[in-house]
Amino acid sequence: MCLADSATTHTILKNKKYFSFLLKRESNVNTIFGTTKIIEGSGRANISLCGGTKLYIENGLYSPKSYRNLLSFKDIRLNGYHLETRNEGSVEYICITKHDLDKTCVLEKLPVFSSGLYYTYISTIEANVIVNQKFTNHDKFVVWHERLGHPRSIMMRKIIENSCGHQLKRREILQSNKFSCTSYSQGKLITRPSPTKIGNESLIFLERIHGDICGPIHPPCGPFRYFMVLIDASTIWSHVCLLSTRNQAFARLLAQLIRIRAQFPDYPVKKIRLDNAAEFSSQAFNDYCMSIGIDIEHHVAHVHTQNGLAESFIKRIKLIGRPLLMRCKLPIST
User: Among 83, 183, 239, 305, whose Cα sits 20 to 30 Å from the Cα of 213?
Assistant: First the structure.
């Protein structure tokens, strides 16, 4: 049971199961009996009402010592709903409504006790994933996990252990396998291996560059429907540029070669390995590369493993981009 209260500024929940993320927090609450510590945490909470209405509460309070759950009117309004008092016969209700064009839909009816308090029953949302199983302060870990493109737990631990300037090393997440991310699980669920290593070669910086074009991507990124990748076989230095059409690949590649020659004059590009696309097999492109001393290598048709470094880099970009789109509730390619 949960009381709908217009006086409380925050929703207060007694059970941790309603929260998808918890931040440890201890706060004093002033009551008529004095000051007491009943708030033990705060975070994102997801609840469902009797009629199936889902409420997503950004800053709910966790209080296992509270006598009852309290639902703030403010959080109901922040979900885009409205509150109206109605009488049906001799029974009074608070109705949670939603305005659709010129029509008002009643989603929930909250009855009233004899004491004048309105109440409802709440339950958890099935898709609710509890991020903090051990109820520790993981807010910064979650932020960096999303910023770094949702890496797997082993890679995330290596990044944390080899970086400095933060307090994440002392967090329990480094010794725990309880952390789960729905976007990571869905975006990287099924993958096929791509050869990424160069066997028994000792290349110097920029001696050979691998390149490839991916697309058309769906949904498009504004006017851009393709992207081109360039990656060095020696140091895994990489470059990505967006293309609206494949015809822009020639100009973008030449512009990047000019930048490389200006930035690294002591490390000339000697070879470029590309596929057999028409953009990379034109006579103008071959003449330019020959004039500056660059050899063009085209792999055998339909044998993508010969350009596996670029193919693996494209797959890595997809595995990073897909969880980010899922996390932001944006459409993703099928």
Answer: 183
